[in-house]
Amino acid sequence: MRSYRMDDITARAFEGPYMEEKDFDLKLIRRTRELVKEFDIKFNPNEIVVMDDSMADDVFEAGLGLLLELGFYCQTTKRCIKFEEWEVKEVLDNLPDSIVLGTGKDAFRMEMRRAEDPRPPVIHSGPTGTLCTEGEVYVKTLRSYAQESAIDSVGAGTLATIDGFKIRKGTPQEFRAARMLAKWARQAITDSGRPGMHINDVAVVSPEAKLCALGPVDGLRPTDGIIVSQMIELKTSLAHLSLVEHLLSYGIYIGNLMTPILGGYSGGPEGTAIVNLACHIAGAVAYNADYHYCSLTNVRNLNGTDRIGLWTIGIIGQALSNNSNVMSVYDCYCSSGPGEETLLREASAGGVTATVSGMNLMGCGSCGGKLIDHETGMEARLMKESGIAAAGISKADANEFLNSWLPTYEDRLDIIKAPKGKTFQELYDLGNAKPKQEWADLHRKITAELSELGIEADK
């Protein structure tokens, strides 16, 4: 690791302060609330992209302080992995400001972006943890992303079944699914004429199963990536740390995923931002992560595209970009589904907010990631196009746009009432993995509306 040997992390997982998990949760709840008041962090629904740099800086300091005080909880040993401030800052001070992902003509450079950065974001795309039908449908689904020239990487899909067998955590079928997800992803990018494209993950639950996805021929290569998740909130396990150990020796890129619950232990948007920030730093230190998937789970609607979610994402992005080289990728989850203009509106709002706040992009998890085959390359394309259009605009202009744009869809975000749309098979030609006319027409409609508001998404 950059500043830590995995032996040090493991020793702390066995020797750190003992604490029952429920007591750790209660301490996190209490301390997070105190930090929100101490730093006077306040959500403003009309200022989605925070104008006050000092508030973003306070979120960074509060998140760092939370991690130093509580530690990174190991569920396996019921111990808190504690860090000293100097060693955390040593890790942060030695992070690179860019990395190259993929290989050959399909490689791209992902850079550490800043708020109001004129450089366009990159996008990691794919079904984003949404269940997919195995086999040809999964290959064609990933191909729908890879064929879009705006999209930089694909992956992150999961399967409902493998060979018709329901996949359960820790079973032989989960291990087989990991292997096949990697093989089918490689087939998809090869069929798209982009064989060196970065594959960003295979979405299986068990850390051990992800090891089955690695391989130089049909599997994930060192130029690809694997996500190592955190448990809610600010927790890890020996299995996840062991996965990190192997990934480091294999040389693959590591993505750190955190999904704090907005409305859960972290409280409202202010507390969720603090905990999410702490999770970023924990991933940099304990996982040696190269990039970080900044996700959150709205306890009600499973999305991050309402005012509360976008504000939370935006202030995290600014906090990190103002104070570190921790590369954060906005992991966009939406309430609505493919074939619905609401989904495109959500994706565009997320792309603009994250881009102006100094982040890169990931998307999209439609219908909260809950419906099988409800994902396509079109929404990811528009998210990236919106991000390109927003690169370099001011925070004030972004807020003006968002306050005009959100009223066009925010009354349709209730997860029960949100339009579910159609499946990939209904919206795409399975022969060539191209969108059918109705979905392409909706893209044109939304980009025309965006253009009228100054976001030239289809240029």
Give a short overview.
The protein has 15 helices and 21 strands. It has 459 residues and is α/β, with parallel strands linked by helices.
Plain-language structure description:
The longest helix has 20 residues, at 172-191. The protein has a domain at 98-128 and 228-452: Monomethylamine methyltransferase MtmB (TIM Barrel, Alpha-Beta Barrel). The strands form eight sheets. A six-stranded parallel beta sheet has the order 5-19-18-16-14-12. Strands 2-1-13 form a three-stranded mixed beta sheet. Strands 3-4 form a two-stranded antiparallel ribbon. Strand 1 and strand 2 form a beta hairpin. 43% of the residues lie in helices and 14% in strands. It is of the alpha/beta class and 459 residues long. The chain is built from 15 helices and 21 strands. It is globular and about 60 Å long.
Give the helices and strands, then pairings.
Blueprint: H1 6-15, H2 21-38, H3 53-70, E1 72-74, E2 79-81, H4 85-93, E3 98-101, E4 108-111, E5 123-125, E6 131-132, H5 136-146, E7 153-154, E8 158-159, E9 161-162, E10 165-166, H6 172-191, E11 198-199, H7 207-210, E12 225-229, E13 235-236, H8 238-250, E14 253-258, E15 261-262, H9 269-286, E16 291-294, E17 297-298, H10 307-323, E18 328-333, H11 341-356, E19 360-365, H12 377-390, H13 395-405, H14 424-427, E20 428-429, E21 434-435, H15 437-452
Parallel strand pairs: 1-13, 5-19, 6-8, 7-11, 12-14, 14-16, 15-17, 16-18, 18-19
Antiparallel strand pairs: 1-2, 3-4, 9-10, 20-21
Helix pairs in contact: 2-9, 3-9, 3-10, 5-6, 5-12, 9-10, 10-11, 11-12, 11-13, 12-15
